[in-house]
Structure formats: structure tokens, C-alpha cells
Amino acid sequence: MSTENSKFKEFNFAEGELLLINKPYKWTSFDVVGKIRNSLKPLKLKVGHAGTLDPLATGLLIICTGKLTKRIDTFQAEEKEYTGTMVLGATTPSFDMETEVDKTFDINQISNEQIYASTAQFTGDIEQYPPAHSAVKINGERLYVKARLGEEVELRKRFVTVPEFEITRIELPEIDFRIVCSKGTYIRSLVSDFGKALNNGAYLSKLTRTRSGSFLLSDAFEVLELVNYIRSKKEEAKAETEV
């Protein structure tokens, strides 16, 4: 997206703005919120996000400012779409690349037909458990904190809906996919369960959120692109008051 001013509208952050951001790899969702909040100083505004993305995931993050933060729960509840890559034949404790491979499996006997057929049991209303390495809270503490301390926790089953689960590329051990799902779906858990359905193992190696409700990643700002624009507008306003 161009940084030319013609590409940006005039924002009213205090009244409330919904900002579409492409979250960078290894940034937390809170990192993005903090970066935007800091760029708005000295304004003291509420800034929040509508739906956490794991640090190793990229893609669409909805940021709300000012009065619009009251609608975060509404935006967060909307259907999501993701594209990603799983690695078949191995597992990790976190179900993704945050932790090292702990088990490996033979994938020589797994056919493309088996892979395509296995998507059926993960389409519709399904049950899943959140990963132990996740932001879910148990007794007020994040699961990933307990997991990193080596503590065992009792995971609670959740029910989610997956209207679409499409395999888009198979080049074993990698499998690319596209998923449309309800709020609260853990793609890492789905990938891990997918591996088990094949009597094998799988972990998530790449994930991008491409849509949330009617909002698209293709319309999103890069974080620094937006931050630099906000700062430039502040400098313009400051220069005008000094004239």
C-alpha cells in the first residue's frame, strides 16, 4: 500500500477508528496495539485489538481506537479465514514452531487421497482442546505461562464451527490449506488433530489470517506505514500551529 497521503483518509482516533493491520511475524498482537498507541501520544486513547494472533502467525489484526473499542467484542465474534502450512510426520509440544520437534512419524504410506478425505471430519461443528501453549486463562493464569514452567494443566474442551477446510497443496511433508472458522478456533489444535486422524503427527509451520468478518487482509496497512503516517500528520499540525 502506498504511503502517499491520497491513500489515507483523515482519521478521528478519539471519536473512534477501526484500523486493519497486517501483523508482522514474531510480533505479538499487544506489540501492534502498543506501537499504535505510542504513535498517538500525547493523546491518551483506548486502543485494543479484536482477536489475538499468535506471535508466529501473520495477517489481519483489527485495531479499534477511542469510542470504537466498545465494539471490540462484536468484531471479535465474526467468522475468520486463514491460509497456512502444516508439516506432516512430526509433532511439537506447542503444535507449531515455537517449540522443537519431540516426535517423528513415517509418512511414506500416506496418500493424497487420505489427506483430502480426512478434511471431512474437521468440517462443520467440531470439538477441540486449546494448545497447552496458548493465551487461554485457567484460574487467571495464561496456559503458556504454566506450559513454559513445565506445569500440567487440565485443558477444557471447546466447540467450534469450521464451514470450510480446503487442502490447496500437497508436497509432503508440507500441506497447504485454507480454513474458514468461528471465533475461538485454534488452528494449531486442528492441525495436531488432523495428524492424529491420519495415525500420524502434524504441526503448524505457517499461518496467515486473510479475513475477519467482511474485513480483508488485502485492505490492511503495514504497521510502520500507518505509524509513520500518523507521525507525519502530527508534525504537519505542529508546524501549522507554529506559523
UniProtKB/TrEMBL annotation:
Domain of life of the native organism: Bacteria
Protein EC: 5.4.99.25
SUPFAM superfamilies hit by this protein: Pseudouridine synthase
Reactions accelerated catalytically: uridine(55) in tRNA = pseudouridine(55) in tRNA
Record's keyword annotation contains tRNA processing: yes
Residues of the Pseudouridine synthase II N-terminal domain: 46-187
Top-level class of the enzyme under EC nomenclature: isomerase
Gene3D superfamilies per UniProt: Pseudouridine synthase
UniProt keyword annotations, A-Z: Isomerase, tRNA processing
Active-site residue numbers: 54
Pfam families associated with the record: TruB_N (PF01509)
Function in brief: Responsible for synthesis of pseudouridine from uracil-55 in the psi GC loop of transfer RNAs.
HAMAP family: TruB_bact (MF_01080)
Record-linked PANTHER family: PSEUDOURIDYLATE SYNTHASE TRUB1, TRNA-PSEUDOURIDINE SYNTHASE
Family: Belongs to the pseudouridine synthase TruB family. Type 1 subfamily.
Protein's name in the database: tRNA pseudouridine synthase B
Gene (name only): truB
